[in-house]
Amino acid sequence: MSIAFLNNEYLPLHEARISPMDRGFLFGDGIYEVIPTHEGKPVGLSAHFKRMADGLSAINIPNPFDAAQWQDIVTTLTQRNAAALDTPYIGIYLHVSRGVEPQRHHTYGNDIKPTVFGYGFAMPSPPETRCEDVKGLHVALNNDLRWQRCHIKSTSLLGNVMHYQQGIEEGKSETILINQNGEVTEAASCNVFAVINNQIVTPPLDHQLLPGITRQLVIDSLGKESVIVRERAITRQELLSAEEVWLTSSSKEITPVLSIDGHQIADGQPGKVWERCLNIYNRYKFIL
């Protein structure tokens, strides 16, 4: 049974109750984070806290806690859920909505108390680090139909949900998105990397994609061992003809893509560059 945190109280998840007048329920008016923990150790904790603070500031919600208080919540949820769920791999979901108002209005007041919710859930174990042991992904490809503030980790995820669901209904694991210029933005729930002409590349950060924490940890960890990642536009054709394609996220870490819309990537197997980079990432992910 998962343990939750709701407005300064820890309780079983099934007992958590939030008002239907909460703007998070009515409008998706909030920010969230998902923090992976492995055997009690969080991955990218300070980076997750910074992104959450930036997101709250971007939509004008006061941050209800400082970093030390957030860390205490994460630590407590990790410990309690590891025991309750009997697994060393716990994901911590944190959610801050603008809060409850007596009437539903598109506009909001400045004196609303934010609703803070969090809970722990069992995560899959980290991906295997050898090409022959890992199962890669088969993904869909689609035009990006989402809003123009994808850099904010908003709880308003309908666009992402629809793209992700379309891929699932096509028998795929994810959906990579292409903008109006024919360039890759990101996947429905992941960032995208590719190996093109022996160079590791990933789309540059802007309003079209989320600044993924795992994305940044990959770039920073590879930089520790002088492996360069080039942040530049990737065209649809470059993606399909790449030597390797990877997706990164808190739950997937770095996972190879074997086919896109039925088009096989290279030889259809996880690549040696991916194998090397995942091993480097694993050496640094808890200390960056």
Automatic annotation (TrEMBL):
Pfam families for this protein: Aminotran_4 (PF01063)
Pathway info: Cofactor biosynthesis; tetrahydrofolate biosynthesis; 4-aminobenzoate from chorismate: step 2/2
Catalytic activity as recorded in UniProt: 4-amino-4-deoxychorismate = 4-aminobenzoate + pyruvate + H(+)
GO molecular function: 4-amino-4-deoxychorismate lyase activity; transaminase activity
Enzyme class: lyase
Cofactor annotation: pyridoxal 5'-phosphate
Domain of life: Bacteria
Record's keyword terms, sorted: Aminotransferase, Folate biosynthesis, Pyridoxal phosphate, Transferase
GO biological process, one term: folic acid biosynthetic process
KW Cell division (keyword) present: no
PANTHER family: AMINO-ACID AMINOTRANSFERASE (PTHR42743), D-ALANINE AMINOTRANSFERASE (PTHR42743:SF10)
Name of the protein described by the UniProt record: Aminodeoxychorismate lyase
